[in-house]
Design brief:
Blueprint (H helix, E strand, L loop, with lengths): L1 H43 L10 H27 L5 H25 L6 H24 L4 H38 L8 H23 L4 H24 L2 H7 L2 H15 L6 H16 L10 H8 L3 H12 L3 H19 L5 H7 L5 H12 L3 H11 L1
Helix pairs in contact: 1-2, 1-7, 2-3, 2-7, 3-4, 3-5, 3-6, 4-5, 5-6, 5-8, 6-7, 9-12
Length: 389
Amino acid sequence: MKCRKFYLFLHVCNREQKEKMDEIYRNLMLLASGIIAALSVTIVALRIPKRPELEKFRNARTIFAIAGFLLATLNFLCFLVGYVQPYDKMAILATAPYEALLMTCTVLIFINPERVTMKCVVREFLIISVLVSAMYLIHWKFPHIFQYVYVALGIAFFGQIISYTTIFFKSYKRAVKLTSEYYAEDYAPRIIWVFWMFVFVLISALACFICLFIGGWGYCILVPTYLCTYNLFAVRMTIYATDNSYITSALHSQFQTAVEGSGETELKQQSDIPEETAEEVKEKLSQWISKKKFMEKDVSYTDVLFEIGIEVSLLRRYMKDILGTDFRTWRNGLRLEEACRMFTENPCMSIEQVSDKVGYNDSSNFHKDFKKRYGMSASAFKKIKQKAQ
């Protein structure tokens, strides 16, 4: 009799727990559906200038909106159905691969637009669709083997995460190199937001993977995670639509081809630079220095080449063979020398003022370059000059 009462007690507690979980699950799904739908509508309404270099960004907006509406629809359906196992986990496995694909494509468009092609997206979309359809078919027709198929598809989703992570980090490294070469300054801090966007995508994907096997209270972690991800995407896309010239100029110009193809060109041009040509380059650079053009901000490598009338391959060879450096290091050296002169003549100027005047966008880059070149911090150098006064 006591055992019967005990089992009855457990049954009541279990039912109450399920009812509580169902209530929490429905509330989370309804909240997520409303917020993501609102964000997607906001992005669709976003006005983007009709410029050729922003064509891919308009595609990114469309991809993000599709991903958002897809997830909002699924969340609303989950709200209507409630917390029913194993359909809640099947819903994650049916949606997470699409979301990973679409969100990764959105991020890649910011830093490597050529990597995202319609052919590639459609191919992966079809593969995911076939696997998702097979999952539901096997659950319906062959329930006795569904567990093994479910685990296999979960592992495949984890493989998808690893693949996209590898692609992103290769593209991000390339983007940092291109923008840094283009502006002759360390531009990693200015595009770090792209890195964090993908980190949030990765965290959301991993949260989905964990929920595939634990479910239940895991949704209390999963839903806030992808809500933060979508909010971050919406904010960054809005900012990018109005302030993007510093990155689109580097990634959507002929400079990309010039930099990536310069190594091959230089191998073909093994002969030394003629003395007459070297003198001509030296004269042009001297005139450019005398005008203190090196202190101008956001002046790209190609802008300098166009102004002084030198080809990319010739200047790179001159810097390497004659000066033993590269353009970025050389120009920053001129800026640092000018900064030292300012500290000497006017030690009351702040470090931030000096770094800004000599052409640095980011004072942290100035501090790093100064210490590397002179073996002491800019503040220590400034104190020495102040004492000398």
